Amino acid sequence: MINLSYMKAHVFCTPEFSNETIKGVVDLLKSVPGRIQFYEGESMTPGLFSMLNSKFENPDAIDSLTFEEFFHLTKGYRNSERIKKEDFVILISSIPNNFNWFSAFKNRDVFIHGGEWDQISNVDSKFELAYQCVENIFQSLIDLEEYHQTSIGCINDFCQNKSEILLKLQTGNICKECLDRAIKKDVDGPIIAHIIEIIKKVREAFVVSVRFFEEVNLEPVYVDERGNISIGGIKIEMETLPKTMYITFLANIEGIRSDEKCKKSHLFDEVYNFIKAHPDKYAIQKMCCNKIKYRNGDTENNKPTFETYRTKAKTAIKEAVGESLTSYYCINLIGNSDNIRMLKVNLTNEKVNISPEFLNKNRNISK
Question: Of 36, 151, 201, 214, which one has the fewest beta carbons inside 10 Å?
Fold first, then answer.
């Protein structure tokens, strides 16, 4: 019988993913007391990733990884951090898997696709990612082999059509058949209870009127001549680099390809050099690129801070407009009709007002 006093789960990410997002997911999971202890693991270093998978040289250009490659990463991380075999390790990555699944488990190793949740709902992705964490823990504990092919609002729905995942997020339910399976597998009752409490917590974020989001009249975003940002008259306080990033995406409202952030770094440089009193010559390369090219000809491998600053911009926006409206204004990662990952703000040109004086001083801000 599985009867541990506490069960441990370590949540970590691949190098390109946001540490702030991992912290948000773990904080949410830890906010619900119970028998599963969640830990925020260190981000997988570029060195460890490269040792385990040579594709990391340019992670934005990776189309996908196989299940075997993801589980090779979780195994490598488990070994490097000396995590016990009875503990769960949960890897979150913006790199898709070759079957385009939300997540998968193998014994007590789990990987979750951390990108493109912006296409599913307007709710902060930390809720969906937290749900995926406990979903896979539950499925591992009951040795799940067959999913519900027709969605019924259960944690074990397969969701062939990705939009169907909203049903189980909104119901926060485990059906009787799946609960009975957990009991037959002797899964510890308090563990099941803890999982149920977490998915109920997630459910609260999704029980919102759909009509509201269809009919809401969004206030425009305004950038004044000095680069100050406001929404509906409320000033948005951001650090220099998140502000640089956000203004650049507002000026390029059609979006920028995720794998072209470094190639388009000159767009960010234009804004950064304008709003920063004493600019760091390499700040934008550090934010966008996997390699820094110094003026003396030297190059250096770099872990881009792009996702960190994207998260900081999102946090600043959320503080001003509230969580319900944040996804309209923040920089989202989405897939277009050609299955190309794009970064963009989900607003129309009519909702973006950049001062002509600012644009005159930053003529090369757009593509």
Answer: 214
